[in-house]
Every structure is written in structure tokens, then in C-alpha cells.
């Protein structure tokens, strides 16, 4: 293999994964040279990565990212999620595979209120977003959102997670707090937030809670809705950070 031109080795490496490329770079100087190829790393960036960069909320961010080599840009997007749209939502790459994932912030969701519901927007510690939605749940609420397929990796299985915190009022008297979710691809679930069923929700490394809402296959824009189902809960707090869509592992 060392006798092959670096370009040929790079083309072979393109059929592996970023993790394999980093490991093979230690094999020999020829492999190390091939692993530095920007043409190689471009194959692991989204096909429309320039358009994704253009979604950055500031021109200075776009200019910085456009100045990076393809390899440097790949690892930058893995380690530093890119703020898009209003600057509240983020998009990033999974380091081992290059698959895209996205977090749609509460600010970028369409929140439909009823007469007695009250959302407030505030900055919260341990959140990457500028603001999160803080709601003291009255009779009901509905949330709608849409994720463009171009912001996710094509032909990839994803799981959608609700990222939130609860402030449970023990004097409320509610026995259950349920969220009904519906994705256009036919995924419909009743998700129980309180009391927490065994194993759910999961606590994240950033201190927030998450619970899976649906499993989806990315081949078109993803439209989803969710609403509170149990109208007896009137005094519990619900802090919505957003909806995260991330690739499923092969074993899921």
C-alpha cells in the first residue's frame, strides 16, 4: 500500500470513516499524508456545507468557517456546533461518522398558546441557547416545528428527543403529565414525563432531561407536533430547551 500514490490511498480511505482515517494515519508516512488530504475530508462534510455555513447568524462566523481547510472545518463542526437561523438552534457533525445532527431551540418552534397558558423567555445557565421557553402549564399547550432535510444526513435513521426540565408542584394533584407527539411519517406516541417511567427520561451530561419522541428516516423535511395531553395538570413548571434530532447507532 505504501507504494500507491497518496491520492489513491485517499480515495480508498473515503470508503471508511473519519475514525478509521485517524487510526490509519499512524500506520505509515504514506497513510499519514493521505489522511491530510482536504479532498478526502470534503467527502465527510455535508454536500451543501457552504449553504449550511451561510445560515450562521453573523457574517464574521461565516467568514471564519469559509477560511478553514476542509479537514479543519470538519473537526471544527464536530467540536463547535454551528448556530443557525436566529442563533438559537445549532447544527453539528458526529465526529466518528460525520453524520449531521441538529437541535431546534424553543425560540425557533411555533408555540400555540391557549387563553390560560403563559410562556416566558429567559436565559438559563448550562444552556447553549440564548433563551429557553419557561411555561407554567395551565390546561394545555401545543408546539409545532419543521426541520429541513438538508440540515440532516440523507438516508439516515434518526431519533427525535424532547430536551426539557420539570418543576413539579406536589400540591398540584396531577397524577400524570403526558405529551402526545406526531411526526408526519406516521410516528405517534404518548410520552410520559411525570411521574418518570423506569429508565426515562434520561439525564444528559449538561443537566437537562431528554426523552425519545420518535424514530424517523431522513428523506424529506420533517414536520412534527406535540401537545400536552392530561389537562388536570395546572401548576407544574415546564422548561423547554428544544428538540434534538440525532443519528441512531447501528444497534438501536
Automatic annotation (TrEMBL):
Which lineage ranks, top first, belong to the organism behind this chain? Eukaryota, Viridiplantae, Streptophyta, Embryophyta, Tracheophyta
Describe the location of the F-box domain by residue ranges: 1-44
Name of the molecule in the record: F-box protein PP2-B12
The record ties this protein, via InterPro entries, to: F-box-like_dom_sf, F-box_dom, PP2-like
* Alphabetical list of SMART domains matching this protein: FBOX
Top-level taxon of origin: Eukaryota
